[in-house]
Amino acid sequence: MLDVSLGTRSYTIQFGSGNLSRIGSICKKLNLSGSSAVITNATIGALYGKSIIDSLAAVDISAECLIIPDGEQFKNSSTLNSIYDVLIERGLDRKSFLIALGGGVVGDITGFAAATYLRGIEFIQVPTSLLAQVDSSVGGKTGINHLKGKNLIGAFHQPRSVLVDISTLDTLPEREYLSGLAEVIKYGVVCDRDFFHFISERVDRLLDREQNTLLEVVSRSCAIKAGVVANDEREDGYRAVLNYGHTFAHAVERLTEYKRFLHGEAVAIGMVQACKLSEYKGYADSSDTKRLIDLLQQFGLPVDLPSFTVEAYLQAIRKDKKVNAGGINFVFNSGIGGSVIEAVADWDFLLSTIRAEVGK
Ligand code: NAD
Ligand code: GLY
After folding, report:
1. What number does the ligand 2 atom closest to the CA of 228 have?
2. How close is the Cα of 239 to the center of ligand 2, in Å?
3. Which of 73, 183, 264, 308 could link 312 by a cystine bridge, Cβ 3.0 to 4.6 Å?
4. What global pTM score does this model have?
């Protein structure tokens, strides 16, 4: 069990294997006794919905699954409206609460529905993808996409609790699983050198999804994220460290129209670019970049930039929502295990690694 310390909005993250049936007692302890809707998609609902509903029924909480379509393209206002419709039809009131059962898509949209329905109700995160277990379920960023860009509409709304069941990862498709590992490696690179070593020494066990190793990796990742969020809940400064690798990742995703790479795969590519820039700055050296590339490749993650012109990258980076008039707050790694966040207005510098690689 881990605490996310945010004063009156503090909550716990519980970790285990095969522990979904604990959800009822968790709700009881939190005095969540109103009716509930378990928001999920058809795949995850079929696998894990019944365990959740039965556990809630055992403590007299009435709940039904609310199925939304599977996929990032459905993290939008029309799915959100369809959620509101069902909540209103079912008569959920201000004492009701939502449960997000799924990956980051389900977690983000459920959190935003909870943040906005009846001016805000409680919700619980039950993340089932690796990315959701180590990142999106913790920290209270909720939201949906807009036609003009990803995650442009949203709110900070912390969950009342997070329940992580490592055994749900058994059914996660391999590519999704490996993609989630990129975000795990990110924590090692910018926050915790020992954790980076820990991962490097357990590649085979992680590839085998060995439960004890996963339990440790997921709980350590959450501990790192919880520490960052407790320090800077609303990303006024240090929380930006979690965006390491994301400047280039977002550009790669945009240029490939979100079709070629999963998010974690794009983050893997972006981290390599960020590490090379850290080298140029003198914050890291070539052996750090080599270790990062080696580790990513052992998990089959991509490390090479797709071939677009420097101009195309420039345009894509300029569209990032984190870019402002003065440039961008760029996250560099300091060796392995530390970070430096700096405003960079020099586009030529930002693009220098790309120029060196794609040469056009
Ligand atoms: P996702 O939610 O689309 O899940 C990936 C796929 O795996 C989906 O098809 C899903 O149905 C399936 N899946 C999930 N768990 C499964 C399981 N146990 N068994 C079988 N299939 C399973 O994608 P994701 O990678 O989990 O999350 C990506 C989303 O998270 C993006 O929308 C991103 O913007 C968001 N995100 C949010 C934050 C945050 O802080 N709020 C942080 C990072 C990412
Ligand atoms: N995933 C980035 C953040 O939560 O801030």
Report:
1. 5
2. 7
3. 308
4. 0.97
Q: What is the pLDDT of residue 185?
A: 98
| Nearest partner of 138 among 310, 302, 6, judged by Cα | 6
- The answer to whether residue 359 scores a pLDDT higher than 70 is no
* pLDDT at residue number 93: 97
For residue 264, the ligand closest to its alpha carbon is 1
Chain-centroid distance, C-alpha 178: 14
Sheet holding 161-165, edge to edge: 2-4, 11-16, 161-165, 122-127, 97-102, 36-41, 63-68
pLDDT of 28-50, one tens digit each? 999 998 899 999 999 999 999 99
Q: Which atom of ligand 1 is nearest to the CA of 143?
A: 41
Quick one: which H or E segment has residue 149? strand 149-156
Distance 337 CA to ligand 2 centre (A): 18
Ligand 1 atom at minimal distance to the Cα of residue 138:
40
Whole-angstrom Cα distance, residue 60 to residue 125? 20
Q: pLDDT per residue over 181-233, tens digit each?
A: 999 999 999 999 999 999 999 999 999 999 999 999 999 999 999 999 999 99
Q: Which residues are catalytic?
A: 119, 141, 183, 225, 235, 239, 243, 246, 250, 263
> Measured from the CB, is residue 279 less than 6 Å from ligand 1?
no
Sequence-distant (6+) residues with CB within 8 A of 159 are 11, 100, 111, 122, 123, 124, 125, 137, 140
Closest atom of ligand 1 relative to the 105 alpha carbon: 2
- Best mutation site among 235, 238, 247 for ligand 2 pocket (most ligand atoms within 8 Å of CB): 235
Cβ-contact 84, 117 below 8 angstroms: yes
141 token code pair: 């960023």
CB of residue 242 inside a 6 A radius of ligand 2: yes
Task: Check if 172 has its Cβ closer than 6 Å to any atom of ligand 1.
Answer: yes
The whole-number average pLDDT for the span 165-191 is: 98
| Rounded CA separation 308/256 (Å) | 10
